[in-house]
């Protein structure tokens, strides 16, 4: 792929590569990139020809990888690579990749990155389901940032599998995902290091908001933008439980009144950013 092998061979100290919008970048190119042994950060945004096979090669070769961005990599998903016991023909770099009849999920491949700290999978993760999340239990122990926005297949039960697999998680984005119920909020309470969570566009329940207020982690950033179901009672419980909040986004939360503003004022004295567009809480 346009000299990927030569690039990696001659520039052996590469720690960062951005291949976003490389529409002709394929699994063969990914196999070449896998030779970049010192690579720490990789962007493959809109590389629509890359599949689980290419990501698997990178997983094996780039053991120092810390960040990988797979936005809009539509062929990378949890459908897996159901493969037979033969060596992939074509690119010789695939020669040592033995394939069997077992389905290998995207998150199982990602689990091979021992020290990865950030995974960004919005929009393109429609195929990630319970089987994929189960694999996070086995790997990604150092994961700190996880973006799974717009993942319609993820349930609260599935999310519970992450709690034991990503104990270092600091930032989590599940915007436009499952409803924020009591059960979902409870399964996320074990992220003791969680500092930032985005729930934009999610349906939230009062019991779910109450559970968030009782989390052991002390949130610094919370986004409830365009969430339906946000009420004065629920928001008050959250801000009382997370008084160290620095950033709060309640854009388009139209059910709140001046009571919510009073609760924020009294509880969140460290607040540096408050977004409340399209809210009408009063004019006091």
CATH class of the largest domain reads Alpha Beta
Read across the widest sheet, the strand sequence of neighbours is 1-2-3-4-5-6-7-8-9-10
Largest sheet: 10 strands, parallel
What is Rg? 21 Å
Kindly name the structural category: alpha/beta
SSE layout and pairing:
Blueprint lengths: L3 H7 L5 E3 L8 H7 L7 E3 L8 H10 L5 E3 L36 H5 L7 E3 L9 H7 L8 E3 L8 H4 L11 E3 L8 H7 L7 E3 L7 H8 L7 E3 L8 H10 L5 E3 L8 H10 L5 E3 L9
Helix pairs in contact: 2-3, 7-8, 8-9, 9-10
Task: Report on the architecture of this protein.
Pfam families: LRR_6. It comes from Vitis vinifera (Grape). InterPro entries: Leu-rich_rpt, Leu-rich_rpt_Cys-con_subtyp, LRR_dom_sf. This is F-box/LRR-repeat protein 3. Helices cover 26% and strands 11% of the residues. It is α/β, with parallel strands linked by helices and 284 residues long. The protein has 2 domains: 169 residues, Leucine-rich repeat, LRR (right-handed beta-alpha superhelix) (Alpha-Beta Horseshoe); 90 residues, Ribonuclease Inhibitor (Leucine-rich repeat, LRR (right-handed beta-alpha superhelix), Alpha-Beta Horseshoe). It has a 10-stranded parallel β-sheet, with no helix packed on it. Helix 8 packs parallel to helix 9. It is elongated and about 65 Å long. About 10% of the residues have low confidence.
């Amino acid at each position: 792929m346009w000299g990927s092998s030569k690039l990696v061979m001659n520039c052996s100290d590469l720690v960062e590569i951005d291949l976003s919008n490389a529409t002709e970048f394929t699994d063969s190119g990914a196999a070449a990139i896998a030779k970049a042994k010192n690579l720490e950060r990789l962007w493959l945004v809109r590389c629509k020809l890359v599949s689980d096979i290419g990501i698997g090669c990178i997983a094996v070769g780039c053991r120092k990888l810390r960040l990988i961005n797979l936005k809009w990599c539509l062929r990378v998903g949890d459908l897996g690579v159901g493969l037979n016991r033969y060596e992939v023909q074509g690119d010789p770099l695939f020669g040592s990749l033995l394939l069997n009849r077992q389905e290998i999920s995207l998150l199982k491949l990602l689990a091979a990155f021992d020290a990865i700290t950030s995974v960004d999978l919005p929009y393109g993760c429609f195929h990630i389901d319970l089987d994929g999340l189960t694999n996070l239990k086995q790997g990604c122990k150092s994961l700190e940032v996880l973006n799974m926005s717009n993942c319609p297949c993820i349930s609260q039960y599935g999310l519970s599998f992450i709690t034991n697999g990503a104990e270092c998680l600091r930032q989590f984005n599940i915007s436009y995902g499952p409803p924020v119920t009591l059960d979902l909020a409870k399964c996320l309470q074990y992220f003791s290091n969680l500092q930032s969570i985005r729930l934009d566009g999610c349906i939230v329940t009062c019991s779910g908001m109450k559970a968030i207020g009782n989390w052991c982690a002390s949130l610094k950033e919370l986004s409830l933008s365009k969430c339906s179901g946000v009420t004065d009672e629920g928001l008050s419980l959250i801000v009382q439980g997370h008084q160290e909040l620095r950033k709060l986004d309640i854009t388009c939360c139209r059910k709140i009144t001046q009571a919510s503003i009073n609760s924020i004022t009294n509880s969140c004295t460290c607040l540096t950013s408050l977004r409340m567009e399209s809210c009408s809480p009063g004019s006091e």
